[in-house]
Structure formats: structure tokens, C-alpha cells
Design a protein that fits this description.
Largest interface: A-B, 50 and 32 residues
Structural class of chain B: alpha+beta
Largest sheet of chain A: 6 strands, mixed, barrel
Order of helices and strands of chain A: EHEHEEHEEEEHEE
Order of helices and strands of chain B: HEEHEE
CATH class of chain A: Mainly Beta
Number of domains of chain B: 1
Distance between the termini of chain B: 14 Å
Radius of gyration of chain B: 14 Å
Helix content of chain B: 25-40%
Distance between the termini of chain A: 6 Å
Number of helices of chain A: 4
Structural class of chain A: mainly beta
Number of helices of chain B: 2
Oligomer: heterodimer
Shape of chain B: globular
Strand order of the largest sheet of chain B: 2-1-3
Strand content of chain A: 35-45%
CATH topology of chain A: Cathepsin D, subunit A, domain 1
Strand order of the largest sheet of chain A: 2-3-8-4-7-6
Number of domains of chain A: 1
Helix content of chain A: 10-25%
CATH architecture of chain A: Beta Barrel
Largest sheet of chain B: 3 strands, antiparallel
Strand content of chain B: 15-25%
Chain lengths: ~140, ~80
């Protein structure tokens, strides 16, 4: 079972954050290769595993850096807004230990925080999250 | 960037009742105002969209009577 474990100095303070690479999905890689076009470099970011998020999120602007266009739109609710339409993008997430996951995420502002992405319950739906608070570590297995 | 899909979203809304009768629960692929097809999974529709049109905007959306919003209970999002 592919998995990774992350340890942090203070898991309670920082939250379950993980360094991930965001890349174009396999089908876009296939299309670009067939057209002889270069592949955009993956974007490194810090993401938080968020059981309060029904879907995963990337910071505004990351899709453009990957040359990706929207492939969907969904309404979202937050504590301060309801029914805000957000664009969706197909991406590939590369977690530590080269754990690869293809996802459809929304793009939204996360400015002013120590994270640039959220790993939501769309990913967790196919995974096991083990959060060991007293050891300041967590494991995500697929 | 959702503005890039206004034409596709208008097409989806205009054909929603028809699609509810013929394709309930399936995923539609719409590009430049044209309904391209219906698919069993979101991934199938996305793959066909990219392979048929390349890396351009298109809309993949599930045909459901009432669309459920995604929910974010923390204050991470600046929305």
C-alpha cells in the first residue's frame, strides 16, 4: 500500500501539512507529448490535510503556472459565503515517497497562510489517515 | 477563471431538463457551447475532452437534479 509519514516539531500548531508537487495530469502529459510540446515544471507547495474540506484546493494562480485551463465549475460553501462558483482543474498530486494521486480540485485564494493547498475528503475517500498527535506525526496510505 | 466556462455553463443550464430525462447521474462534456457526449465517470469525460480538444477549457459536469455544493468548514479559503 503506497504511503508516506510526515513528522513535525509541533503537529498541533502547524496542522497536518505536507510538501507536495502539483503537476499536469497524465492525460495532459500524453496530449502535450503527442504535440511535441514541453511539459510544464511541477509546482511545489505546502498543503494541509483538511477533513473539513469536502474537496481539495490549490492556491489561485497555480493552474496558470502549469498551463492548465478549467475543466469544470462547482459551487462551494465556506463559513462566510454560500454558493460561490469556483473553477475546477484536473491535476496530479505527488506526495512524499513518490505517492501519486490524480485529482480534480478547485482553485481558490489561500493568501496570507502557511499553506498553498488543501487535501480534502475527495482524496481521503480512497485513503487511510493515521494522526498520532502525541508523536507529532501522521501517515496517509492509499 | 470560472468566467472562461460561461458559454459551457449556459449550454448546460439550457439543456439541463433534457439531460435529466436522458442522462441522470452521468457526466456530460461540453465544449464551446456544444454537448459532446455523456460518460459514466468524470475521469472518462475529462480524458475524452483533453484527447479531442487538447489543453483548452471545457466543462465536465454531472447531471443531477440538485447540485450539492462543496463544503469548507474551516476559514482557510478567502471566500
Amino acid at each position: 500500500m503506497p504511503s508516506f509519514t510526515t513528522g513535525l516539531p509541533n503537529l498541533q500548531a502547524a496542522g497536518p501539512i505536507v510538501e507536495v508537487q502539483v503537476a499536469v495530469p497524465a492525460v495532459v502529459q500524453e496530449v502535450l507529448n503527442a504535440a511535441g510540446q514541453p511539459l510544464p515544471a511541477p509546482v511545489a507547495l505546502t498543503a494541509m490535510i483538511d477533513t473539513g474540506a469536502s474537496g481539495s484546493v490549490i492556491q489561485n494562480g497555480i493552474a496558470a503556472r502549469l498551463g492548465l485551463h478549467p475543466i469544470g465549475a462547482v459551487p462551494i460553501n465556506t463559513p462566510s459565503s454560500t454558493g460561490v462558483m469556483c473553477a475546477q482543474y484536473a491535476i496530479r498530486l505527488v506526495f512524499p515517497n513518490n505517492v501519486v494521486w490524480e485529482a480534480v480540485v478547485i482553485e481558490a485564494p489561500l493568501a496570507g497562510q502557511h499553506i498553498q493547498g488543501l487535501i480534502g475528503r475527495d482524496v481521503l475517500a480512497q485513503a487511510v489517515l493515521t494522526y498520532i498527535g502525541y508523536a507529532n506525526q501522521f501517515t496517509l496510505s492509499f | 477563471m470560472v468566467e472562461m466556462l460561461q458559454t459551457e455553463l449556459q449550454t448546460f443550464d439550457a439543456r439541463r431538463d433534457e439531460l435529466l430525462g436522458t442522462s441522470l447521474g452521468k457526466w456530460v462534456l461540453i465544449q464551446d457551447g456544444e454537448l459532446i457526449g455523456t460518460f459514466e465517470t468524470q475521469r472518462d469525460a475529462i480524458n475524452v475532452g483533453y484527447r479531442q480538444f487538447g489543453n483548452v477549457p471545457f466543462l465536465v459536469k454531472q447531471v443531477v437534479p440538485v447540485e450539492m455544493p462543496q463544503n469548507y468548514v474551516s476559514n482557510h479559503l478567502g471566500i
